[in-house]
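User: Can you help me understand a structure? I only have the sequence.
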Amino acid sequence: MEIKVRNVCPVAVSKLDSLAKEKGLSRQAFLKEQLETLSIIEEVEKREQAIDDLYDRTIETMEKCSDAMTNIDRTFHKLTGEDEE
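Assistant: Let's start by predicting it. Here is the structure, written out as tokens:
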């Protein structure tokens, strides 16, 4: 599919050309890449947030498991009359 953009500021075009050149791309290839990235950025950010949330919940669960294991260990030692090390 083709997209045309008219009346772009010459300074902006020059900057785009410089950015494209830095990446070793033509202006067209650079703009295509940027537009495709722009079209999915919101979804990527949502997925990143979901991963961060999952990470936080996993850490909380691991801390709860660790506390529970410590309590079980203490109870075991009390019941068996062994000294905790």
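Now, to help you interpret it: The first helix runs from residue 10 to 22. The helical segments are 10-22, 27-80. Let me know which part you'd like to focus on.
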